[in-house]
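The methods section describes the discrete structure representation at length, but only in general terms. Each protein is reduced to its one-letter sequence and a matching series of backbone shape codes. I believe one specimen quoted in the main text would settle the matter. An entry of this sort, consisting of the sequence and the corresponding backbone structure tokens, reads as follows.
***
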Amino acid sequence: WVQEEAPDILCLQETKCGGPAVPPEVRGLPGLPHQFWASAEGRPGYSGVGLLARDAPINVTYGIGDAEMDPEGRVVTAEFPSLFVVCAYVPNAGRGLVRLEPRVRWDSAFLEYLRRLDARKPLVLCGDLNVAHEELDLCHPKANRNNAGFTPQERQGFSRLLEAGFVDSFRHLYPDTPGAFTFWTYLGGARARNVGWRLDYFVLSQRLVEGLCDSKIRNTVMGSDHCPITLYLAV
């Protein structure tokens, strides 16, 4: 599927492996020779992200400069001539909201990191942000108000991101589209019934919006409890 799509940049989240453990079929993907992997320190099989690119970036950094979260291997940032691309796997608040407080701290630190980048040049944030922002972004909002991914604190964190001048590319183009989900639990045939959540996003700096061609949810592509999303951007 990746070869057919032939993306200029491919971002992967929750890879659960470090660079040396990446399978050879991924290492050898045609057209994506520049590959950058982050993984959790001392925790094999946990978290992890990867950013693969057709063209070599100017610079690549790992983490957001946060001592608490950076060891979890959640962010890779690649700088290109006209923009930054940030690949992120945002922490889950956890069953019973046991990690809600660290998640709230993350949201604050991550927003400041994105602001610092945006002050230098515009950015695209691609990732599993582990939040459904509005009621339209999940199938059963009332039943999930106190569950991870739809708490007031997490939703407010995403609202602050938008208030800071960033744009949810999908909702910018499709503000009222229902049933547009990117994640479905494996339980109970949720995907077949489209009982899902929109947790995966392309978020843009405001000044990139004029080049936004499309932001698509590829919900027919199988292989995970998430589906891919695709951004078409003229730069």
